[in-house]
Amino acid sequence: MTSYPDFDAVVVGAGFGGIYMCKKLVDQGLSVKLIEVAPDVGGTWYWNRYPGAMSDTPSMLYRYSWDLEDLQQYPWEKQYLQQHEVLAYLRHVVDRHQLRQHMQFNTEMKAATWDPDHSTWTVGLSSGQDITSRYLVTAIGLLSKQNYPEIRGLDSFKGEMYHTGSWPASYDFKNKRVGVIGNGSTGVQVITAIADEVKLLRSFQRHPQYVVPAVNRAFPPESRRDINRQWEDIWKQAKESMFGFGFEESQTPASSVTAEERERIFESAWHKGGGFNFMFGTFCDISYDEVANKEAADFIKRKIRQIVKDPVKAEKLIPTEHYARRPLCDTGYHPGPPNG
């Protein structure tokens, strides 16, 4: 007697990737069950609701490319999306395409076993249920688990402790002393967002960071109308570029221009905003040529010294390594051009 699997496909995770796979499989006429450990869709954008959480991919590209009508109609206000805006967009897509009926929330995949004799997967769920499928798609992403540092005394800390990857729905930092461990992309956003509401803020950093302004400017209606006329070209450029961030990566070596022209290009990128734009839109060799890298690094160091008036504090914020980590941008970590 032939036994049939419960579903054609099981998808694990309801972030950008899982939602897309669910739609693609449903469109092909397959029966699909998507399981998600969170109470709703969003993936990393559901859990990472910490203060200041923001995408640094331009708003016009931080969305799906396959629904032209939605691209033209769905609103956004600024150059970059805040966490709650990304989450609202993903919920909108799921409801617009009636995908929620295929989803099971508050459910974790505990095991997955392949049966070669019947060419099926058996997926064990946290509910105690086992389901079978022909295909298994894992879309859990890179940021699905919280990473707690091994710091002496962390387990005996008596105060409130939050992880940005599982931020509570409500919190109150007013008149409290707050320490932030880490100053990468997430740490910079948290520090900037809570600085004005806490009694004391202490940043624990292993390495100072090269940070440029985000310049999260508002999108006027005429700019949106221009974009709506160019979606085909916008996506073509993004998909054919090296990084897909919506700008033309530079083909110019830093050493091929005069010092004055190099300074002008860096200054223009600084005021335009965006970490990836600064590293890859100015010169083509910052990421692999030591001289070019030093020119970019020295420019940012000069900016930090200009902005941070306390020379002792400025030196604590100035990196000593190559400009080679993930490009960061901020909305006030170092006060810069207007953001909005």
Description:
By secondary structure, this protein is α/β, with parallel strands linked by helices. The protein has three domains: 7-138, FAD/NAD(P)-binding domain, CATH 3.50.50; 170-206, no CATH class; 211-330, no CATH class. It contains eleven helices and ten strands. It has helices at 16-27, 44-47, 68-73, 83-96, 185-194, 221-228, 231-240, 259-272, 275-280, 290-307, 311-317, and strands at residues 7-12, 32-35, 103-104, 109-115, 120-125, 130-138, 177-181, 200-204, 211-213, 328-330. The protein has a six-stranded mixed sheet with strand order 3-2-1-6-5-4, covered by helices on one side. A two-stranded parallel ribbon has the order 7-8. The chain has a two-stranded parallel ribbon with strand order 9-10. The longest helix is centred in the C-terminal third of the chain and has 18 residues, at 290-307. The protein is globular and about 70 Å long. It starts with 6 loop residues before the first strand and ends in a 10-residue tail after the last strand. The model is unreliable at 336-340 (pLDDT under 50).
Low-confidence segments: 336-340
Determine the CATH superfamily of the largest domain.
FAD/NAD(P)-binding domain
Helices, by number, come to 11
Report strand order across the widest sheet: 3-2-1-6-5-4
End-to-end Cα distance: 66 Å
Per the principal axes of the C-alpha atoms, what is the gross shape?
globular
Portion of residues in helices? 25-40%
CATH class term of the largest domain: Alpha Beta
Radius of gyration: 23 Å
In total, the number of strands is 10
Arithmetic mean pLDDT: 94
Q: CATH fold name of the largest domain, please?
A: FAD/NAD(P)-binding domain
Pfam families: FMO-like
Keywords: FAD, Flavoprotein, Monooxygenase, NADP, Oxidoreductase
Organism: Fusarium oxysporum f. sp. conglutinans race 2 54008
GO molecular function: flavin adenine dinucleotide binding; N,N-dimethylaniline monooxygenase activity; NADP binding
